[in-house]
What we know:
- It contains 13 helices and 13 strands.
- By secondary structure, the protein is of the alpha/beta class.
- It has a domain at 87-336: Rossmann fold (3-Layer(aba) Sandwich), CATH 3.40.50.720.
Amino acid sequence: MKALIIGxxxxxxxxxxxxxxxxxxxxxxxxxxxxxxxxxxxxxxxxGDPHFVETLEAALGSRTFDxxxxxxxxxxxxxxxxxxxxxxxxxxGGIGVYKGFVDPGHHPPGGLLVPTPEDAPLISDPExxxxxxxxxxxEEAVMQAHREGYYNATIYRLPxxxxxxxxxxxxxxxxxxxxxxxxxxVIPDGGLSLxxxxxxxxxxxxxxxxxxQPEKSAGQIYNxxxxxxxxxxxxxxxxxxxxxxxxxxxxxxxxxxxxSRPYLSYSGKTSHRVMDITKIKRDLGYRDPVPVEEGLxxxxxxxxxHRPAPGGEVEQRLQDPFDYQAEDRLIEAYKASxxxxxxxxxxxxxxxxxxxxxxxxxKIRDHRQR
Length: 370
């Protein structure tokens, strides 16, 4: 059996490759060759550009495969090129297709449903978000080819994946501040925002479930992610504890907490992004093979051993300026403002239970007139 992975050098790639080799596949990966990694010697590499029909066809020639996993490139073009090259097509897309994911204002009143199921509204207007709309069109191209009988297709909608070799490791924004000895880190809105993430090995395991169960997963779209969802606060505290550090988490309103944007979300919003993974658990029996805490520990340790260069490609992708002087000025001004606001008199009665709790029998009202 022959399997082709479009991509294969990112966080999930080695786990997918290992799983396919164990299942008896001869594995080939198609990638640009810009990020080579150590893989088993029997894995074949095809170097080419997976973003265009002509470059895909030129690199593949007349080759066919028993299984194709599209994990990179422009999915709508990959789906087109693979129509007569494989009977089984698995696509790894993203949760950015959901209406309200990029901007909660696109899906009133508060953005995404919590949790968000696979049949939630999708971005249908390119004027709202062109990139997300193209993601939706790519999914439609895959499912149209499935309906026309070109191949048996399954689509996975992935969240932010964490693990080794992540091109945009949000963990690094927290980690570098610890390594640089920062006393503070800014968190928006108490760090209460919830977001589904997926450890790379868990995501690869979910994909392999569809490899093993082609009939059950045929024509299906699945949300993927860790079973346990952490808040931003919990995520930062867990990284902090893994690194054995201690510092102050400075809580600010979202619109003021500008230094937190690189490790908050792409949109910089604190709205929840929790995916409903009930369907893949029910249909394919998904359960996290690696607990969140262990996955994050492995991720942190990998980046401690493979530290991104200051100002290098990874930090440029993160778009984190690590401008500590500006952060300190912001924190100082914010704390001073809070102190002034707390000096404004505002009488609050102590909290007590709102229901009656009489101290003696026969009274119509208790001592608090309840």
